[in-house]
Design a protein that fits this description.
The structure is a homodimer.
Chain A: H1 2-12, H2 19-26, H3 30-36, H4 40-52, H5 63-79, H6 84-94, H7 98-113, H8 118-147, H9 164-181
Chain lengths: 187, 187
C-alpha cells in the first residue's frame, strides 16, 4: 500500500494522493483502506517514512560532519520524490513521521555534542530542519515548474547561476557556525 | 481584486484560491480576470505582496536588530492569513512577489553590514528566509489543524509546552551568531 501511495505521489503529486484515489488504484474500498490508515495524515506519515528511509543511513563523524551529512541526505531524499519537501513538511508538522523524529533526534545529539545546553539542543536541531525544508521546498517547486515548462523570472529563486548544492551547503555551514557559537554560558 | 482574493484565502485556504473561483466571486468571466493576471502565479504573487505589506515596516537598528525585527514581522505577517506561509513560499520560489524581493534585499543589506562578503550576503539572507518560512509553515499547519479539531501527537511539532515565539527567536539568534561568525577570511 505504501509502495502504491509513493507511486501515486511520484506520478501525480501530493494533491492527487488521497485515500479515495489510493483505494481505487488498489482495487479496494475506501473503508478497507481506513482499516490500515486511521486518516490521511497517517497515510502521509507512512509515505514520509518511506521517502526519508535513505536519509537514515548512519554517519560516523564529528558533530559538524554529522549535521552536514544528515542535511545533505535529507535534501537528496526530499528531491527524489515529487512534492517530497511539501509532504514531509506536512508530516513533520503533524508529528506523524517516525523517520523525521529519528532525524531530529540525531541532529539534537549532534547539537548536544557541540556543547549546546540540553534544553536548547532540540531547538537547534529544529532550526536546521526548518532550513532544509524551506530551502528544498523552494528548490523543488522551481525544478517542478521548470519541468512543466513554466516561464519564471530568475532573480528570486534558489536556482540561479550557481549550483544549488553549493548554495545549500552555505546555509548549512552558517547554521553550524551558529551552533558552535552557542556555548552554554551564552544561553 | 486582490482584496477579494485575500478574503478567499482567509475564508477557504490556498486550495480554493483559483482563477475560476475568484472570477465567480467577482462576477466576471475567467477571461476578464486573465486580462489582469497573466496566470495563477501572478495572482498568488499579488496576494503575497498584500500579506507581506505589514512586514515592510522600516526598522532602524544595528544589523542584528534589523534581522530580528524583519524575521518577527515576517512571521507575524504569515500567521495573519490562512495558509500564509505556504502561499508566500510558493510565490517566493516563483520569484513573483515584489515584497519578498524587498525583504530579501533588506536581509542581504543586514548580512553585508555584519561583514559577510558581498558574494555571500544574499545566501545568508536566503538562509534566514528559509528558516522563517520553514518554521512558520510548521507552526501554521499545527495551528490550523488544532483549530479544525484534529488530534495530533505533541512530540514533534513546534507548538510544545514552550511559547512558539521563544522557540522562533532561538533559531533567529542562532542564525545571527552564524552570520557574525562568517568573516570574509573564512569564506
Amino acid at each position: 500500500m505504501v509502495d502504491k501511495a509513493t507511486q501515486l505521489l511520484d506520478d501525480y503529486g501530493i494533491a492527487d494522493l488521497t485515500m479515495r484515489r489510493l483505494a481505487r488504484e488498489l482495487n479496494v474500498t475506501p473503508g478497507a483502506l481506513y482499516w490500515h490508515f486511521a486518516d490521511k495524515q497517517e497515510l502521509l506519515g507512512a509515505v514520509a517514512d518511506r521517502i526519508l528511509t535513505p536519509a537514515l543511513a548512519e554517519v560516523v563523524a564529528d558533530w559538524q560532519g554529522r549535521i552536514t551529512a544528515i542535511c545533505g541526505q535529507l535534501r537528496d531524499a526530499l528531491l527524489s520524490h515529487t512534492d517530497g519537501a511539501e509532504l514531509v513538511s506536512a508530516s513533520f508538522a503533524a508529528g506523524r513521521s517516525t523517520a523525521a523524529t529519528e532525524l531530529l533526534a540525531r541532529l539534537t545529539d549532534a547539537a548536544a555534542s557541540a556543547g549546546v545546553a540540553p534544553a536548547h539542543a532540540g531547538l537547534a536541531a529544529r532550526t536546521v530542519v526548518y532550513y532544509v525544508l524551506g530551502f528544498t521546498a523552494d528548490e523543488q517547486s522551481r525544478l517542478q515548474w521548470d519541468a512543466a515548462g513554466a516561464a519564471l523570472s530568475d532573480g528570486q529563486s534558489v536556482l540561479g547561476d550557481d549550483d544549488p548544492g553549493v548554495r545549500f551547503a552555505f546555509g548549512v555551514r552558517l547554521l553550524i557556525d551558529g551552533i558552535a557559537a552557542r556555548q552554554p554560558q551564552r544561553l
